[in-house]
Amino acid sequence: MKRLVLATLLPTALAHSHLAYIIINGALFHGFDPLPGRQTNAPDRVGWSSTNADDGFVGPVNYTSPAIACHLDGASTPAHAPVRAGDNIHVQWNGWPIGHPGPLLSYLAPCEGTVDGCAGVDKTRLEWTKIDDSAPVLIDPTAGGGPPGTWATNVLIANNNSWSVHVPVGLRPGPYVLRHELIALHFAAKRGGAQNYPLCINLWVEPPAEGGEVVMPFMLDGVRAADLYREDDPGIWVDVFKTLTTYVVPGPTVAANAMPVPHSLQSRSVPLRDGTPVGVTGTKTVPFLAKETGKRRRILVHEFEG
Ligand SMILES: *[C@@H]1O[C@H](CO)[C@@H](O)[C@H](O)[C@H]1NC(C)=O
Ligand SMILES: *[C@@H]1O[C@H](CO)[C@@H](O)[C@H](O)[C@H]1NC(C)=O
Ligand SMILES: [Cu+2]
Questions:
Q1: For this UniProt entry, which residues form the secretion signal (predicted)?
Q2: Is the beta carbon of 56 within 6 A of some atom in ligand 1?
Q3: Is ligand 1 within 6 A of the CB of residue 62?
Q4: String of b and e for 99-128 (b: at least 16 CB within 10 Å)?
Q5: Could you tell me if the CB of 61 is within 6 A of ligand 1?
Q6: pLDDT single digits (tens) 38-73
Q7: Which whole-number Å values give the CA distances from 245 to 2, 16, 184, 240, in the listed order?
Q8: pTM for this one?
């Protein structure tokens, strides 16, 4: 019996994490579960698949390899979650262990020159613009004052292991990959000891509601995944259990006109219904009805220029 209990507790004790689902305006879209026997390969999942069967991480040893883009062997999916510029995307992680402090970062990359949206995109060529990162409160009197302070991971845990990402107003309609990433720094005092958890999600940014134009375009300023981080970046090779006065969040700076959701406005969220992901053909989308049986087809085709 004892063995059995241990066997069920162990994965939780080692709990690293993956993307369970996202919620957009109450609608749930599935992520990918990499754990053995639990791989959710539903065709309507919007989360990229990966081969980290231990729910593990990508380390600095792989910062210049394709794995840093969308996790180990990250592979896209035909489904995209429809969203509008200005919406929030609620990202639900499967869990997060205490004692693993670090920042949370979000990036967007447009899928250009493809006929299937982000389904067949080359992840090494995607150009990522940072739309959210999260500097820690290094000296937090409400949390006892001393190191490591209060990190995004504390806020994540307090909100049932979830995080809200704001889709920038003025983002041009079309297919995008959202790269949402947690960097655990508990071993980062040792060079090469940081642990990255990059999760990729396909999005379809719908044209503005009134059929209007994108008035204030959101400026994209893309960096390829292999150029995001270096093993000796000050925010990657760092002892967070020492008293720090500054922390430099790794990667490029957040785009000037992005509006990250501040720690104080992060909250938990429960899905109200299943979302209908879309597939992309050229500049059109069609609903994914993979799991529907005999339901009325609701065809919503969006067309737009460029
Ligand atoms: C680095 O990448 C290789 C090849 O994808 C993988 O086998 C290994 O687990 C990765 N290690 C880390 C720490 O990222
Ligand atoms: C917390 O997250 C889990 C998924 O990890 C979800 O099943 C549950 O409904 C969430 N609970 C609340 C209260 O948000
Ligand atoms: Cu761990």
A1: 1-15
A2: no
A3: yes
A4: ebbbbbbbbbbbbeebebbbbebebeebbb
A5: yes
A6: 766 677 999 999 999 999 999 999 999 999 999 999
A7: 45, 28, 19, 10
A8: 0.90
Closest CA to 248 of 193, 197, 185, 190: 185
The residues near 65 (Cβ < 8 Å, ≥ 6 apart) are: 226
Give the Å distances, CA to CA, from 99 to 17, 23, 36, 199, 255: 14, 27, 25, 21, 30
Measured at the CA of 284, the angle between CA 279 and CA 287, to 5 degrees, comes to: 35
Residues 12, 172: Cα–Cα separation, whole Å: 40
Q: Does the beta carbon of 67 sit less than 6 angstroms from any atom of ligand 1?
A: yes
d(CA 107, CA 283): 22
Looking at all shown ligands, the one closest to residue 101's CA atom is 3
